[in-house]
Amino acid sequence: MEQLEYRKLIKVLEQVASARQGALYPVLAESLAVHLGWIGAFVAENPAYLTPGNEGEERYLTTFRPDFVEEYAERWRSRDPFASRDGVARLTRHGVATLGQLCRRATGPERDFADIFLRRNGIHDMLKIVVRSQSTGDVSTVGVPFYGTRRVIQPGDQLMASTLGPLLGPYMNHENSINKSTRTYGHKADTSR
Known about the structure:
Structural class: alpha+beta
Distance between the termini: 37 Å
Oligomer: single chain
Strand order of the largest sheet: 3-4-5-1-2-6
Strand content: 15-25%
Number of strands: 6
């Protein structure tokens, strides 16, 4: 990474480190938008596909429209390429994956997730980053949609994501991420997949 990228990364981490208790998500989302141009980032806490055997509740911390999140949870979550065998393997091994990478070997329903659900909502690609809390071991993912003028994930975005994931670990715990202004959506984990 170039020196400018390191500076951007440090600014994100400084803002996250200074977040008040319960305000991590809004600070993280804003700093990713301001410093990296990643607008609309969201967090999925306790994603069932990365925490096998966990009967906990998935929570989505997002600024997306409620109907988008509800449709995802009710209709599309089981078709999400990030939750596929290939997606889980890539996220587990590399800590980062893109929708474009996963759609190359996706099944029909997984392609429908991208071609019908995401594209209908203006999302052309998505970057997903695994973050493991160092204090609790809890797993979260940070998702970054690419839409509008930023439709394509650049190699620098992937490099930044793979560097950022482990560095966010000390700050991520589920108690620190939520405040009353954050939209949270719960969904009982389905571990049958």
